[in-house]
Amino acid sequence: MSRKKKNVVINDFKIEAYAAEGKSIGHLEDGKVVFVENAVPGDTVHVRLTKSKKSWAEGKVTELVVPSSLRAVPFCQHFGVCGGCKWQMLPYAQQLIYKQQQVEDQLKRIGQVALPEVQPILGSHKEKYYRNKLEFTFSAQRYRTNEEIQAANGALLPKEHALGFHAPGLFDKVVPIYTCYLQDEPTNLLLEVLRTYTEKKGHKYYDYRLQDGWLRNVILRRTKAGEVLINLVIKEENQKEREAILNHLLREIPGITSLHYTINGKMNDSLHDQEVITYHGKGFIEETLEGFRYKISPKSFFQTNSYQAERLYQVTRDFAGLTGNETLYDLYCGTGSIGIFCSKKAKKIVGIEAIPEAIADAKENAAMNGLENCAFYAGDVSEICTDDFFDAHGKPDVIITDPPRAGMHEKLVQQLLKMEAPKIVYVSCNPATQARDLQLLDAKYKVTRLQPVDMFPHTHHIENVALLELK
Predict the structure, then answer these.
(1) DSSP letter string over 348-416?
(2) Are 363 and 393 in contact (CB under 8 A)?
(3) CB–CB of 454/99 below 8 Å?
(4) Each residue of 110-120: pLDDT tens digit?
């Protein structure tokens, strides 16, 4: 092992098991555990430590010495560079085994409450082309690989632009993407058309360091039925060039349902506070889940895997055990998708979400489906769920909560304990924070059912649904 404090390298390190969050583990001779990214159990690797504490360390693989027998050949030319689909080197069946293990380990280790058997994970029927939304970035700085830099032998590499995904951990450099397996066509056609057109016209890609350049981002959303929404983001108005590029997209990309543009002169790429302008089409697309219609506008939140969203919502509705007489509260409801999905089997749906635009979409979605038993309210969930609110809208028989990765605010957990709804269905995209919240809820609730659902093949991300019943 190298002794340099800032560049400790462990040679021929054995990877023993999978840990969580995409990291595997091995042990040093003194028993110290090392968490390693981009490694597979069974690998022998050289590892450079990035963090070292008394009893544990973290590291990154610098060289794969002997590959594990578990490894598969990645199917994408951009694997290992663009930062997406980091588990392509694992067969999908093995990915599911590790995701199941992660859910079980985190719930037991962090939650430390009595648990039922975790049901076998529901894998995705589509391992490729499963996303309904992707965002690509125009950057004046193309990402250079270590191989390119070494081959230059100290020479200054020319500045090149790129259209693709941000390189991992770098805000200003982009990996050019030529073929992406995450979303059905016209995704790759769109990239080809934009790259060819903008290079021919000499349009400037955005420089994130200098805050200069015209083209910033392009966002594509696609439904299962093939409706297509495109939003082109530019730094400033140039009507002649803007209309020319948008008209070119309409000519070259078949079946565009809704074409938009956004002028974003800010330093960051966030569009929540920017006006999205419809250039062509009806201004939105529609997704259908089990017969329910959902309007998706350019800034709408919607589960990015429509196919698995349907299965996730079916599990959630099944856990809720609805008979048609219940008042159901849908917390962190977004655009109302879960509540609407459960609406035909509940007496009343009350949805709460912090983002006013999402609540506006939820109301439109309810109206579009002819539902009169749904009411949606904008506000911070932990602030709005008070005794007065419950008195005004009815005591919940079932609560569905689908918080962000940080989990529920402790203030909300305490309010749920006080309210004592007979059932809580907890949908989580982070089993670690879910386990923490289950421990708090254990004061009055027992966990009776657990169902992991894989929404994102070839990544370490995992959803888990837990049913809690009042003791």
Answers:
(1) EEEEEES-HHHHHHHHHHHHHTT-SSEEEEES-HHHH--HHHHHHH---SEEEE---TT---HHHHHHH
(2) no
(3) yes
(4) 999 999 999 99
pTM: 0.92
Quickly tell me which residue has 């999978």 as its tokens: 18
The encoded tokens of residue 113 equal 């409450």
Instruction: Dump the DSSP string for 268-294.
Output: S---TTS-EEEEEESS-EEEEETTEEE
- Reduced to 3 states (helix: H, G, I; strand: E, B; else coil), residue 438 is helix
Most distant pair of Cα atoms in the chain: their distance: 73
What's the pLDDT tens digit per position in 380-389? Answer: 988 888 888 9
Q: Count other Cβ atoms within 10 Å, centred on residue 147.
A: 8
Give the span between the Cα atoms of 162 and 206, in whole angstroms: 10
What DSSP string runs through 118-162?
PPPPB--S-SSS--SEEEEEEESSB---HHHHHHHTTPPPPP--E
Select which of 76, 85, 374, 429 is catalytic.
429
Cα 233 to Cα 298: distance, rounded to the nearest angstrom: 11
The tokens describing 293, both together, are 């219609």
Query: How far apart, in whole angstroms, are the C-alpha atoms of residue 279 and residue 343?
Result: 34
Total Cβ atoms within 10 A of residue 299: 19
**DSSP classification of residue 80:** T
Closest Cα partner for 469 from 455, 448, 450? 448
Omega into 298 within 30° of 0, i.e. cis? Answer: no
Choose among 327, 347, 467, 319: nearest CA to 395.
327
CA–CA gap between residue 262 and residue 278 (Å, rounded): 9
Determine the average pLDDT of the residues in 214-226. Answer: 97
Closest CA to 164 of 133, 186, 185, 143: 143
DSSP E strand stretches across 200-332: 215-222, 228-234, 256-263, 276-281, 285-289, 292-296, 327-331
Catalytic, 342? Answer: no
